[in-house]
Amino acid sequence: MSKVLGLGTAKSGVEHWWAQRLTAVALAPLGLWLALALARFETLSYAAVVEWMRAPVTAVLLLATVITVVYHSYLGIQVVVEDYVHAKGAKLLALVLSAFAHALLLLAALYSVLRVAFGAAL
């Protein structure tokens, strides 16, 4: 029954695989949008970028991009660690450090985008 449902033996591999694929698919248009938006600037001056980031649509798309990139990175690093780190203690440590590093990176990025988007004095 597990094979039919695509659950495999651990019942989580398929979900992880799908999450990686879905985040990759989401990153294609988000990355293209970001590249095209930044390419439109004559100069990437601080003031111009801040003004651009304060637009509501831009802020929402930047938040979506940040969340998707960090989650996709977390999933990828997890696979690499699980595949190539064989010592149980080292594997657990690497997975925990990766989770904390990605959480910290996500919080910092979200804070930065939101702070600029809501016009806080920098």
Broad CATH class: Mainly Alpha
CATH level-3 fold name: 3 helical TM bundles of succinate and fumarate reductases
Distance between the termini: 57 Å
So, the CATH homologous superfamily?
Answer: Fumarate reductase/succinate dehydrogenase, transmembrane subunit
How much beta, percentage-wise? under 5%
The helix/strand order is HHHHH
Indicate the structural class. mainly alpha
Helical region count?
5
Sheet having the most strands: none
CATH architecture: Up-down Bundle
**What is the 3D form?**
elongated
Could you report the average pLDDT, rounded to the nearest whole number? 90
> What helical percentage do the residues reach?
over 70%
Number of strands: 0
Rg over CA atoms, rounded to whole Å, is 18 Å
Tally of structural domains: 1
**Contiguous uncertain segments of 5+ residues:** 3-7
Fold and architecture overview:
The chain is 80% helix and 0% strand. It is elongated. The chain has one domain: Up-down Bundle (3 helical TM bundles of succinate and fumarate reductases), CATH 1.20.1300. With 122 residues, it is mainly α. It is built from five helices and no strands. α4 runs antiparallel to α5. The N terminus is likely disordered.
Concise account of the structure shown:
The protein is mostly helical.
How are the secondary structure elements laid out?
Layout: H1 2-5, H2 13-39, H3 46-53, H4 56-84, H5 88-117
Name the features.
122 residues; mainly alpha; disordered N terminus
